[in-house]
Input
Amino acid sequence: MPQADVVVLTALGVEFQAVREHLAGPFEEHDASGALFEVGTFTGRHARWRVACLETGEGNAAAAALCQRAVTEFRPRYMFFVGVAGGLKDVELGDVVAARHVYDYERGKDTESGFRTRTATHLSAFALVQRAQAVARGQDWRRRITAAPPEGEPSVLVKPLAAGSKVVAHERSATARLLAEHCGDAVAVEMEGHGFLQAAYVNAGLQALVVRGISDRLSDKGDHNDRVWQPAASRHAAAFTFELLSRLPRPQPREDGLGQRVTDLRLGHLPPTGQSTIGFGPGHTVVAVTGDGAVHRWDLDSGDRLPGAPGGRDLGFGHQAVVSPSRHSVALVRPRTLDLLHFAGTSGEYRQCSVPLGGEEFAVSGGGEVIATHDRRRVALRGLDGGEVLREIPCPSGLAASGVSTDGSVVALATTNRVFVHRHGQPVAEWAVRNRLEILRPGCWLAVSPLGTHVACASFRELLVRRVADDSIVLRRPFSAQESWDGLGAKGMRLLCTDSGRVLWLRRGRLCQVTDRPEIRHLEQEGRYDDFAAHPGGDLLAAVGDEGLVRVWQWSD
Output
């Protein structure tokens, strides 16, 4: 599923083209059960937006149905219906109307004495109406018009519209008289806005607005309007819409999860044993490694699967694969060898370098510019090119967990109740961690942030996060007895710490965020996850499920 925070719908091709002129490529086509969306990007003042566009055809019913289709496919924050309308009063050709609300003038009851109107009304989102008023007070939006207006300078009104299934062709028609009587404050009439807002209304959290350019008036319809004013009015409505969008702030992640989903991917064949591992490669690439060492890669910008590498021999226990964030390389720790796979960019060519290991070794969580392995006796920091040992650090007795920064400058080692932080060229820092039933030597989980600024340790009693520079405690959160019990079991457990000190925790296959709040916030998900990773840029989060599903979210650290 491609990412789209914004969806723009139009009824006509000329309106669609006016919207598309404000988007940058590369453009993607997304087929949503036959509805063909086109997805591009738009850079505003505060955010870079992914925008999905669709030409719906005419009518409220089509607008409502395809609005709901767009919500199902993209779960956008904002939706706009952009196009042309016929002026009723107080507007000139080329003017723009941002709908405060839209009337359904055709709703009513047909009785013996005649048709009795029961006008229904749906409102545009209050926040977008407020923003439309602010944009209308200035002239900046006109700079976005892609061609000179046929005459004069267009104005903007934030006023009601009316919508129905009829093309109203004369000011003395029965429909025109009905509009004047029952929708007296509507300044223009169109055919899709009410159905669009009705569909938006039933989707909580979605903000929607109808924007129309005036292409004709009831007393002035003809070929000249279709040939000249329809394109001009479409351009004016699109210019106003994108100026409004340019001023909107990037919304905070939804409360039902840690961020907006970008895409779902599938591994395909899974080996019968072993856990999958995931990581981000250079740019917007994501890499998953299955338990047999098979490497799967995707380009997130295009959604295309990239050539990977076949599996064959099982990896060791636990997370035994490391994906480099800075180059197209993957390290696989097998029972007796370290295999380094170096891909030639996004092509299928790769070279493999295998280094013998002295005994059973495990991969240390983190790294990427260097690789770290340990055999419970010592941690070996290894070069990514050939696996050569660069530095060795002795392990404490009873090693329970380990972590390393991306460049290997910070290495953390933990026992049941102690954390030892090694910084290259500096004394070892030692921290105490509280645990439960320490006489039984229960384990713990450890994470070093990518730049080595923070270290997080989760025991069966508490979560502790420290800032490396001054050894200060950033977060200390005790766990309840139930939370401690939920942490039992080694499978599906992984801790991740960001350079801002934020902590994500994979606990028994469930991804959550741990803060000082009373509750642990879980990400909505289906099934269990084997592993997860954060993009070095801090804007994406990825997880791989135990059934081969790879999910990527937009996320902000």
Remarks:
- The helical segments are 13-20, 60-74, 126-136, 174-182, 193-201, 223-246, 481-486.
